[in-house]
Design brief:
This protein is α/β, with parallel strands linked by helices. The chain has a domain at 8-135 and 176-191: Rossmann fold, CATH 3.40.50. The chain contains seven helices and seven strands, in the order βαβαβαβαββααβα. The protein has helices spanning 17-28, 40-43, 62-71, 95-123, 145-152, 157-166, 176-187; strands spanning 8-11, 32-37, 52-56, 77-80, 127-130, 142-143, 174-175. The chain has a five-stranded parallel β-sheet, with helices on both faces. A two-stranded parallel ribbon has the order 6-7. The longest helix has 29 residues, at 95-123.
């Protein structure tokens, strides 16, 4: 018996990083996982895992989100994992960068929750998990492809990586799989009495 047997889970940004690790972990625990992302090519790689169905979806587009909702009769867990961290200072952030960041990090959660919450209310059950970055204040770093891309974009990638590692109190970055362990708990009935709670995975940075 899996911890998530029979549960239908919809998650965004499933093609790589934390979203991918969570999709795989959910599937292993018996859930029916509807993994979405804008990167259809990377998303297809998840189809080799049992329990995972893939769907190309831009979570910033209302019509696409609503179309997906009409195709799904039941939802037990909504996991909003899509996010974007812009590198550089505010002086390097153009209007389009600001709009894109807000649309992905904030508006997408609003669209997904507003669209799928009525189904949960009708069922009188459901879990919503929202993922966000702690990069702005806590610096607990998770080793993901997007982080590696930002490091490689630096003038001195090796030095940038070393700086990331040196500020980690544990001496290493977190893995996406370690974050997935918490998400499995939050998606399961084990967390039935947990609500409105913020969980920080930062390797002790905030202590």
């Amino acid at each position: 018996m899996g911890r998530l047997d029979g549960k239908v889970i919809i998650l965004s940004a499933a093609a790589q990083g934390i979203g991918r690790a969570c999709a795989i972990a959910f599937g292993k625990e018996g859930a029916v996982v509807i993994a979405t992302d804008i990167n259809g090519e990377k998303l297809k790689e998840l189809e080799q895992y049992s329990g995972i169905k893939t769907k190309v979806l831009d979570v910033t587009q209302k019509e696409q989100v609503e179309k997906l909702a009409k195709e799904i009769e039941k939802i037990d867990v909504l996991f909003n994992c899509a996010g974007f961290v812009h590198h550089g200072t505010i002086l390097e952030c153009e209007d389009k960068d600001w709009d894109f960041t807000m649309n992905v990090n904030v508006r997408s959660m609003y669209l997904m929750i507003r669209t799928f919450l009525p189904k949960m209310l009708a069922q009188k059950s459901g879990n919503i998990i929202n993922m966000s970055s702690v990069a702005s204040s806590i610096k607990g770093t998770v080793d993901t492809p997007s982080l590696r891309e930002r490091i490689e974009a630096q003038p001195n990638p090796q030095q940038a990586l070393q700086e990331f590692l040196e500020r980690q109190k544990t001496g290493r970055m977190a893995t996406a799989e370690e974050v997935a362990h918490l998400c499995v708990y939050l998606a399961s009935d084990e967390s039935a009495y947990v609500t409105g709670k913020e969980f920080i995975i930062d390797g002790g940075w905030s202590l």
